[in-house]
Fold this protein.
Amino acid sequence: MFSHLHMIPLLPLLGAAYLILAGKRHSRGVVQTVASIAVFASFVISADAFFFGLPAVVHQGGITELVYEWFSGGNVNVDLSLRMDALSGLLCLVVTFIGTLIHVYSAGYMAHDEDYPRFFAYLNLFCGAMLILVLGDSLPVVFIGWEGVGLASYLLIGFWYKENANASAGKKAFITNRIGDFGFLIGMFLLFRATGTLDIQGILDSAKVGTALAAPLWLGQSVAFWAGVFLFVGAAGKSAQIPLYVWLPDAMAGPTPVSALIHAATMVTAGVYLVARMSAVYMVAPAALAIVAVVGALTALFAAIIGFAQNDFKKVLAYSTVSQLGFMFVGVGTGNFAGGIFHLFTHAFFKAGLFLCAGSVMHAMSGSGDITKMGGLGKKLPWTAWVFRICWLAICGVPIFSGFFSKDAILNGAFATEVYGHGLGWVGPFVGVVLLVAALGTAFYMSRLYCLVFTGPCRADEDVQHHIHESPISMVFPLVVLAAGAILSGFAGVPPAIRELFGKHGESTLAVWLEPAVGAPLEVAHRTEWMGMGISTVIALAGIGLAYVFYGGGYRAPAHAFAKKLPGLVSLARDKFRIDELYGFIIIRPLQALCRLVFQVVDRVLIDKILIGSWAFVADLAGRVFRFFQAGDVQRYLAVFAIGLAVLVWIAARPAAPDEVRVLVEDNTVAVSLVDPEAASGNLTYSFDFDGDGIADRQGKVPSATWTFSGPDHHTVSIVIEDARWHTRRTIKRDIEIR
Amino acid sequence: MPGHYYILLSLALFFIGTTGALLRRNALFVLMSLELQLGAGSLALLTFARGLGDQKGHVVAFFVMALAAAEVAVGLAIVVSVYRSRRKIDLDAINELRN
């Protein structure tokens, strides 16, 4: 039906290839246009496939395109096939839409960077890989995209590789993600072993039947549980959850548009997408869902607390991203997949908007992101400030802004969920309460950020202040579009309670669309719904108010008083609870010690000394021996020649082989005769040994003999021809069988 | 005189020639030893030819003479040119072909 699904990831990939190969030949304008158009075209195709194929995409289980039969052997059959249903289609639209905006923004942001073709090539590579991840219809294809975005992320974090800190931030991201990838692979293998297929639809169908995946595997838990847990390890790596979140704050070393696109809006949500994609598997194992929810909730709270004390614009946003990803995981982890994806959707807009504001501010502040040296930028950067205000209210969860609806969907889902059954019933309320606290924290640290950057007097140095200016139109335009998205995207998922006010019934558009892919949304009583919305609003406003008391118009007395009262806590939060140091102590240092040991034992001793050394010794010895013959001394050559000649003469003096050896077996009697013309000369003696005792049984000048064996057996007859003149001999053996 | 005496003489000459070629240091003596080996070979050929009443051995002996002449011509030329360039014909000292 729609045979151009493959064009969606292909176009950005082609763009990346072209820019890598030929980007340096073109001017800045051409490079930016090629890169942006590649992604924009992919957006147009996605939108076309999604909206014009809406009935098929949403209600008939999605549209599938088999691009290529990748490999098959035995009962493994992996196709490179793509699939667009409501879930992947939505992600496709988000990735390409925000991707296009960020390409446009980058044109302004990277205007002074020399290496722009490489930057745009990597961005295109990222978009292509992300689209493969999203559209992939079997787990190995998803994994290609998964690794591809990891690669692009690594390349872009270390984009300014000349500074060591950037390069090692890239490495940290890559290695942390490898740990997650390991989990992804194990989960994939477990699912394959249980269901016999790697095709996502096949696995999900099998999960709906339940028998294969519900079978116990280990520690009394089912296959689905372990597969779910291992896939979540992968998701936690990619989406920066405890304990693998440490790479994301460091990833801010990359250019800001990269932080916005990859490390806020799209790539880091891949883990949430994966859990939602495999929703049917998780539904078989509520305990795995509970782990997802609890880890998500704790991450949301923990990252929010770290966010209180960060003084770098992008670091605050990074911890905020980690925290918001925790919200999404709570959404999917409480079986409220539509809610989690809804938050993913709205978060993509407002967080990309916030990051692009950060880029705009840093652009104005001569590249510095230190919020202690900002303030009063509201007047100087009016467009940026307004966009930031909208996105800030959205992330805080103030009503009518998108974050309000999506956060509310998650919170209500957490309190109302019934997926866990008894025994794990505490999980829903527990994560709900943790999220409420995290939401308060979110409102607080985001408002702190807003107050310190945009209100009050400017704390920057004179010469920096002098340069503060609003960003160019190519940067402001995407900001405005994202601000609009930060308001409007929420209306896709308005809860039924509010819809009723407007005379509409049933679930929101988004929930209806996502239902075939991730299951029906949770039914929440309208009274509960209203109460939840009321509580979230109060919490959001409380957080904002508290932050205003502390930081409104710059650092206020309560902020100083608090820091004085609890200096330990503040510095601990500023040092990110020293988790990096903890990992360094318990993992990295032992690992390095092990590596050194292995290096000394295996590399230095086993390989260098024993394996390489022994062969070097043999080669050296052979060299010493052969060097003796290659001394350049004519007479030594002559001696070798003479010895060789003597050997040849001795060989030539052996009796010639007989023309034929005839063996006749008759009953127990064996007759052997040789056809040998030399026999007539009388110089040769023939010895026949029939019984194999090494002593000649028949001997003479005649080349034939007979022998009678006692019974049936296998025997070996050896015939020795001897030339008495030179004392040379030739031995011939024949196997015979007496029946 | 029995025929195998000639063969024994031939063997003795060949042995002397081989020893000389392997052990003498002076290139001229080595060349002379080579001549001795060739002579021993010719003698053996002639002895067998006579013993077998066959003319082929005689023919080959002529070839050996021609070969010996050519060998001496080339060999002496080499020795002379080596002497000209290095002022010595001690084979132990001429080992530039080494390694």
Q: What stands out?
A: Residues 56-86 of chain B form the longest helix (31 residues). Chain B has one domain: 3-86. Chain B has a mean pLDDT of 89. Helices of chain B lie at 3-23, 27-52, 56-86.
